[in-house]
């Protein structure tokens, strides 16, 4: 593991210990030296400081740790929700992927996932600037077809189908990433157009189709 990756792994572990667990700041409880950067290295880089037999983040260290844990948990969400990787492979893939994610890509992943608030394990994902903008606008860049309003248009982002039969049925309709889609009705079923064809599905199927929103709904 590269030095900067070891530092990020250390910061993530410290974040869980210091920010998410109460009273766990004693030096003897913190880090596994075989897998993480030493406390001395973190202290030399101005990321932590020692006090009263324990440690705490510096202001810069806390922000670095917050960003590291955000990248890791967004990566977990990506592999769990979109790629549908199993639990063991998800964790390994996320640990590798998080270290190469740049800020711009991180925000695009967050938007693609709909600004998730928790990772697959239920732990909170620290919000980014993109999350705040989405909350202020009351909108999500990517949302399920079932959550759109009549007249909304977009491009199919991905399909989250729990079984192969559902996936095959949707693909037979032309529900493929990159295809334009418009929701025409949401009751009694979800009716939509893909290209020049029109289809109708139930709520369960509509919730499996995720769309990059393009235009607001008709009034």
UniProtKB/TrEMBL annotation:
One matching Pfam family: Fe_dep_repr_C
TM ranges: none
GO cellular component, one term: cytoplasm
Domain Ferrous iron transporter FeoA-like as annotated: residue spans: 143-213
Superkingdom: Bacteria
InterPro entries according to UniProt: DtxR_MntR_Metal-Reg, Fe-transptr_FeoA-like, Fe_dep_repressor, Fe_dep_repressor_sf, FeoA_core_dom, Iron_dep_repressor, Transcriptional_repressor_C, WH-like_DNA-bd_sf
One term of GO molecular function: DNA-binding transcription factor activity
Keywords: Iron, Plasmid
Record localization: Cytoplasm
Self-association and partners: Homodimer.
Descriptive protein name: Iron (Metal) dependent repressor, DtxR family
């Amino acid at each position: 593991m590269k030095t900067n990756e070891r530092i990020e792994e250390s910061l993530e572990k410290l974040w869980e210990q210091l920010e998410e667990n109460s009273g766990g700041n004693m030096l003897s409880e913190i880090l596994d030296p075989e897998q993480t950067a030493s406390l001395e290295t973190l202290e030399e880089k101005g990321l932590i400081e020692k006090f009263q037999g324990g440690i705490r983040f510096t202001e810069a260290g806390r922000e670095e740790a917050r960003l590291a844990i955000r990248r890791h948990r967004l990566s977990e969400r990506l592999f769990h929700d979109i790629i549908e990787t199993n639990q063991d492979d998800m964790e390994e893939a996320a640990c590798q992927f998080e270290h190469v994610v740049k800020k711009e890509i991180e925000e695009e992943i967050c938007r693609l996932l709909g600004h998730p608030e928790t990772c697959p394990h239920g732990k909170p994902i620290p919000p980014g600037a993109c999350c705040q903008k989405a909350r202020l606008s009351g909108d999500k860049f990517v949302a399920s077809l079932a959550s759109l309003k009549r007249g909304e248009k977009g491009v199919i982002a991905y399909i989250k189908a729990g079984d192969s039969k559902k996936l095959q049925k949707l693909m037979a309709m032309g529900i493929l990433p990159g295809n334009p889609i418009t929701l025409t009705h949401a009751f009694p079923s979800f009716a939509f157009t893909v290209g020049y064809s029109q289809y109708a599905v139930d709520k369960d199927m509509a919730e499996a189709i995720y769309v990059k929103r393009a235009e607001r709904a008709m009034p």
